[in-house]
Structure formats: structure tokens, C-alpha cells
């Protein structure tokens, strides 16, 4: 009887040990699954946040450039130089659902003469004839020290003002108006007639390329004149709504 009791007790202890080990294994597996699920959630959260930050900062850069272009007319004589000075910067920092983030972006003029550039996001890509911007984007995200995302990227953005068209219209308009006024340099009446005859054709040419043209002139002394013109690209589609882009030019004859 004693041996049977001892055997039964050992069997119970062994069974209990097996159950404890099995239970511990289940708990460990559940913990690992929870940790894996938490890791996956953070990874997905960081990727979504990275895309959101990239988009919002890029839109902010485009909005800044749009404001600058719409508030100050560009000069025909220095159009390329003024575009080279275009720049914008934006940053964002904070915490989103347990993910701390810091993002910075800058953008500046990217002329086509530089050649094609690998764009690893393609927010809009290069578009010939418009204002292309090179954006440098830096993003770092930390999911509580568990998952960290750090990324530095270069993208191309563009503002759809038609730079090539404006340059072409600047040259043709300045040349035609100067020639019209130079035809009768000492007769204001004939100058006005020549100016009035030339302007409609130039306005049609500008309109065909999406610009509205206005112009004027005045005598300067006895046999010389000065003239001005304004080209406005109306309703350019911008990041913060449509806007007008103005390019101005002037000249003298005589």
C-alpha cells in the first residue's frame, strides 16, 4: 500500500510539473505573439506616419514658393536668377500614438540643365518647361526605443508656372514693342499708331501660351521712348489653391 501511495504521489507530481511547463510555454508564446503584434503595429504606424510627414512637408514647401511667386512680380531681365533664389524650408516634430518624430525638408531651384535626377518618391516628377524644385527630406521616428525609422530622401517637386513660355514671350514682346516704337522715333503720333498695331498680335501670342498681356509706353525727350509690359499667367494650380504669376519687362528706344 505504501508503495502504491508513493507511486501515485510521484505520478501526480510529474503530471503537475508537465502542466506547469506547458502553461509556462503557452504564456511565453502568448507574450511573444503580443510583442510581435506590438512590433508590427509600431512598424506600420511609423511607415504611415513617414508618408504623411513627407506629404505634408512637401505641400508646405510648395505653398511657401507659391506665396513668394504670387506676391512679387518676376523681372524678364533676371527671370532665371530670380528662380535660382527660390527656396523654402519646413519642419515638424511631436508624438503621434506613441511614435516620436522629427522631420525636416528644404527645397530649391532645380534647373533642367542639371539633368535627370533619381526621384525615390516621385511626388510629381520632373516636368519640362515649368519650375522644378529639388527637395531634401529627413525623417526620424522612434517607437519608444523598440522600432526606429530614419530616412533621408531627395525628391522633385514642381510649381506649374510655365517658365519657358514666359522667357520666350519676354524676348518676343520686348523685341516687337521696341521695333514698333523705333520706327518713328521723333513722332509720337506715328509711334502710338505703330504700338497699337503691334500689341494685339502680341496679346494673341501670349494668350495662346496661357498669359494675359498688357503694355504701355511714353515719350522720353524728343526722339526717344520707354515702354513696359506685363505678362500674367492666370489661375496657376498651386498647393494652396490657384494663383496668378506675373512677369514684367521694360525697354527704351531712341
Largest sheet: 4 strands, mixed
Please state the average pLDDT score: 81
What percentage of residues falls in helices of 4 or more residues?
A: 40-55%
Q: Give the N-terminus to C-terminus distance in angstroms.
A: 134 Å
What is the count of distinct domains? 2
Number of helices: 4
Count of beta strands: 8
Structural class: alpha+beta
Task: Describe this entry's structure for a reader.
The chain has 254 residues and is an alpha+beta fold. It has 2 domains: 121 residues; 89 residues. 46% of the residues lie in helices and 34% in strands. It is built from 4 helices and 8 strands; from the N terminus they run H-E-H-E-E-E-E-H-H-E-E-E. The strands form 2 sheets. It has a 4-stranded mixed β-sheet. A 4-stranded antiparallel β-sheet has the order 2-3-4-5. Strand 6 and strand 7 form a beta hairpin. The protein is rod-shaped and about 80 Å long. The protein starts with a helix and ends with a strand.
Summary, kept brief:
The chain is built from four helices and eight strands; from the N terminus they run αβαββββααβββ. It has helices at residues 2-71, 79-84, 163-182, 188-208, and strands at residues 74-75, 87-96, 99-109, 130-142, 148-162, 211-219, 225-238, 241-253.
Which helices and strands, and how do they pair?
Layout: H1 2-71, E1 74-75, H2 79-84, E2 87-96, E3 99-109, E4 130-142, E5 148-162, H3 163-182, H4 188-208, E6 211-219, E7 225-238, E8 241-253
